[in-house]
Amino acid sequence: MKIVSYNVNGIKARLPRLVEYLTEAQPDVVCLQELKSADEGFPIADIEAAGYGAIWHGQKSWNGVAILAREAQPAERQKGLAGEPEDEHSRYIEAEVNGVVIASIYLPNGNPQPGPKFDYKLRWIDRLAERARDLLAEEVPVVLAGDYNVIPNDDDTYSVRAMQDDALMQPESRAGYRRLLAQGWTDSLRTQFPRGGMWTFWDYQAGAWQRDAGFRIDHLLLSPRAADRFAGAGVDKEYRGREKASDHAPTWVRLR
């Protein structure tokens, strides 16, 4: 079972690339982030034509998450996170697919920091941790997949110096991510590449892709039951180099 996290950076703009990926790679589940589309604008007909069922949680112009399943319909379990009733950002959706609970996550960026956007990011991490703790208590295979907007370690970026003031790499951001892992989650990509150096994102600016100046912010965390079925993880890097591609590459884990 290949489960993918893919920040598409605008599903309408990247639809040809997404359909291309679904057709060529044929992953079993794809968690999308940053749809930048209201619910009614989600291109469900194109997704279904490619052989996938879908659920989604959209928002006009910003955010938005979805879960796609090949030749199946994801069974929706939850949209959004508890803890801030006034929070209207579409950043979390959760479903069950073939006995595995899967969440698509788009964690806040948090820039500029310090400031209210960074404070919101840290609160959101804490809210995610509360949901993650409840999911662990279910003792079922769970995958928390998404764009976490956190660079966990120094070797997860091309340049510590270039990113040192960014919200993605602040001590508070990293501490929130570590607290999540400490609950008992396995960072699948880190397990596959323990020495780091595996990027999932390359900015459009300053020739970042051409220079391979990237970093790792897309993560797929596994509950113990899912980690027992771990069969590999990786990044489908070539899709970042295609015409009008997202600035993220599809990042995946495979479960037996």
From TrEMBL:
An example Gene Ontology molecular-function term: double-stranded DNA 3'-5' DNA exonuclease activity
Keyword Magnesium: yes
Cofactors, names only: Mg(2+)
Enzyme Commission no: 3.1.11.2
Domain Endonuclease/exonuclease/phosphatase: 4-248
Pfam family, one: Exo_endo_phos
The protein, known as: Exodeoxyribonuclease III
Organism this protein belongs to: Sphingomonas donggukensis
